[in-house]
Amino acid sequence: MRGPPHAAAVLLVAAAALCLGGRAEELEASSPEFNYPAVFNFGDSNSDTGGRVAAGFESISPPYGSTFFGSPSGRFCDGRLIIDFLMDAMDMPFLNAYLDSVGAPNLRAGVNFAQAGCSITPATATSVSPFSFGLQIKQFFAFKDKVTKLLSKGDTYRRYIPQSDYFSQGLYTFDIGQNDLAGEFYWKTEDQVAASIPTILLEFETGLKKLYEQGARKFWIHNTGPLGCLPQNVAFFGKDRSQLDELRCVAKHNRVAKLFNLQLHALCTKLRGEFAGASITYVDIYTIKYSLIANYSRYGFENPIQACCGYGGPPLNYDSRVPCGQTASLNGNLVTAKGCKDSTEFVNWDGIHYTEAANFHIASQILTGRYSDPPFADKMPFLIKPKF
């Protein structure tokens, strides 16, 4: 299967039209003309389609990519990411990573600047990735400048790069901030991490304003998920059972994530009043993911927190010393973190990232519009149907 059914394309187009202010009575007439010529994505590993691998920081081994691509695709997943499903729903090709020059990538429909491990705030010497949000913004401007120069030279490259008006008409998507919070818990208290949120969001606001000043008008912003429910965090911070909530997630991580999201939502509301002629859609990823973990069996999953690909067995199947797909020596014995037999039974893939099946569920919930501000759930109440 290439992706979600074609009805999903109609759904996302109609939903986006509503987000941009289309009235219900005008929907039928406006939907066919509504179109994003390109998508420009900024983020971390939740939406990285190959940037970190292309940068040479690390390679990804099987079973990554095994569910859909048949081999590692640069994604930290067994298959497709949320951004892949959203692109598919808009009947657009998957986004190529900005740094990936292998395979003659076609960038006409947009480009992905996301990098695994990146943060909103500037990178430091100890950061997992140097490609912070600010640097991704700089890469976008470098890309836009190069495209402008190539377009001025004639039609030679037009079929491979965005047209000049795509930058003002395109959709700008964001899924970033998880690393700014989760990484800080290793050496800061909950109150200290919470106190850093305004600084993080000020950096995010600065980046959004730079994009707006350069013509961006359509913004699609994901909040951060329930960090305390990731096996990696449960394994390290959940040894004291009193630190876990009713779902066996680390409570303090989720409290800070919700506080971050509350302030991010407020920022989106504020910018709607400042960005004349722009649309800003805030998507509540946290609620979708937490509901999935809380009601996993209702959605056809069997393991809400245990990693599909890992080492150690239940309840987490996660050991930081043996990453997914790798072999390490533990107590003199070689052990390998292998994938599970059926990833569709698992919400979590490798202790940090979600499975393709979970990403599909999340994308289908996004497309209902119930979790977005502005909302459009009452206009488009149906779901796309999973096919694996």
Automatic annotation (TrEMBL):
Single GO molecular function: hydrolase activity, acting on ester bonds
Superkingdom of origin organism: Eukaryota
Lineage: Eukaryota, Viridiplantae, Streptophyta, Embryophyta, Tracheophyta
Family stated for the protein in its record: Belongs to the 'GDSL' lipolytic enzyme family.
Signal peptide bounds: 1-24
Keywords, alphabetical: Glycoprotein, Hydrolase, Signal
A Pfam family recorded for this sequence: Lipase_GDSL
Gene3D superfamilies: SGNH hydrolase
Transmembrane domains' residue ranges: none
UniProt KW tRNA processing keyword: no
Protein name: Esterase
